[in-house]
Design a protein that fits this description.
The chain has about 130 residues and is of the alpha+beta class. It has one domain: 2-Layer Sandwich (Zincin-like). The chain has 4 helices and 3 strands; from the N terminus they run ααβββαα.
Length: about 130
């Protein structure tokens, strides 16, 4: 009798995390932001989506996009800036889960992504952000 080896099932790459738990991690990251960062967060909402749309960033590339800021940076708001919808920071769950290997790493990457997008909210460009 010949014994055939079964192929191992392909391991899931990344961290497993429910949507509810992920949203909790994002809320925790927001709550742990330094006070001076929290003080800049006016008229802004932070949401979680599973993944970016086909062409999300300015270059038409959604691949590798972990977050997105949509709105008017603080430095560009004039005296007529009122009665407007909140700016939006979107954190993309699936790309972050895919790139991280441990829960602690996931929490750190969520925090860095959030800080990066808030950096855009205060008027910083990608080349001005350290992360």
């Amino acid at each position: 009798m010949v014994h055939q080896l079964r192929a191992r099932p392909e391991r899931h790459r990344g961290v497993r995390c429910s949507r509810w738990r992920f949203e909790h991690l994002v809320a925790r990251a927001c709550a742990q932001l330094p006070a001076q960062v929290q003080a800049t967060m006016h008229n802004i909402v932070i949401i979680v989506e599973d993944q970016p749309q086909a062409s999300t960033d300015a270059y038409g590339d959604a691949g590798g996009t972990l977050g997105l800021y949509q709105g008017t940076p603080l430095g560009e708001r004039g005296t007529g800036y009122n009665l407007t919808l909140p700016d939006k920071v979107t954190i993309y769950r699936l790309p972050l889960l895919e790139m991280c290997h441990r829960s602690r790493e996931l929490q750190e990457e969520i925090t860095l992504t959030l800080l990066h997008e808030i950096g855009h909210h205060v008027g910083l460009d990608d080349h001005e952000l350290p992360f």
